[in-house]
Write a structure and sequence with these properties.
about 160 residues, about 85% helix
Length: about 160
């Protein structure tokens, strides 16, 4: 059942892969806006359901898990706002991205990955304290899988640097 939840979300996210990358600026901007909206709305709702199924916690564990997870999600949302701002900046400059803007985008992307890793480390520790290593590792595994699916979807829709 845990794998089915991840498979379901993966299928939803990957349905757009056939569209491929497009060099058209207007299409790139529309795609970026659409994905920004998706990430802010539908995906958060869908993700919560997937996490619930994948974690497989009993009611007592859920009562402890969700207050921690909600704090995590709030911090993750702030990281996503930064990441989405970087994607928007890319779309605004595409296809005429200067070297300076490319450097800024790359630095921001690297910082985003570092921030996400730090957040995972922080909440792995909190989950481990509350539930032990196995549940904490499962939390990290689920978040990593979901993050990879989202990253793949975004990468498939955002044109490569010209």
């Amino acid at each position: 059942m845990k794998l089915n939840a991840l498979t379901m979300l993966g299928t939803l996210l990957l349905t757009g892969l056939a569209v491929g990358q497009t060099p058209d600026k207007a299409t790139a901007e529309k795609t970026t806006k659409d994905y920004m909206d998706l990430l802010r709305k539908d995906l958060r709702k869908e993700k919560s359901s997937v996490v619930d199924q994948a974690m497989g916690l009993d009611s007592a564990q859920k009562a402890k898990f969700y207050p921690i997870y909600e704090k995590y999600e709030k911090e993750l949302a702030l990281l996503w706002e930064k990441r989405l701002a970087n994607i928007k900046k890319y779309a605004e400059n595409y296809p005429n991205v200067s070297d300076a803007v490319a450097d800024e985008l790359a630095a921001s992307a690297q910082a985003s990955h570092a921030d996400r890793s730090a957040l995972w480390k922080k909440y792995y520790g909190q989950m481990k304290s509350a539930f032990g290593s196995k549940v904490a590792a499962r939390f990290l595994q689920v978040e990593s899988a979901l993050s990879n699916l989202i990253d793949l979807q975004l990468s498939s829709e955002i044109p490569l640097m010209p």
